[in-house]
Structure to design on (97 residues):
């Protein structure tokens, strides 16, 4: 498969994942399972963008590692923030007072 075809497929995947993510967020449920699904969609989208549009294979290894840390770290933070909602609200509320 040529490079242009791969970019086209990556773009279609991003569009479909965006539509799926919007449908996930439009529901009334704000449970932990939805947060995990949103984090999974986020991780896949970040990896697609970093692999096919940022051309990380040509980047310096330090930059590549930083971007991959972001790609895996942000979804993990979404899950952790959802799982520890109340303690984080108390911590941040106490920090603001």
């Amino acid at each position: 498969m040529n490079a242009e075809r791969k970019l086209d497929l990556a773009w279609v995947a991003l569009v479909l994942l965006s539509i799926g993510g919007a449908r996930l967020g439009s529901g009334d449920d704000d449970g932990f399972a939805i947060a995990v699904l949103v984090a999974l969609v986020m991780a896949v989208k970040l990896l697609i963008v970093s692999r096919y549009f940022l051309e990380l294979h040509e980047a310096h290894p330090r930059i590549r590692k930083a971007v991959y840390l972001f790609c895996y770290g942000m979804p993990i933070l979404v899950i952790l923030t959802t799982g520890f909602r109340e303690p984080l609200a108390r911590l941040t509320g106490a920090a603001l007072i």
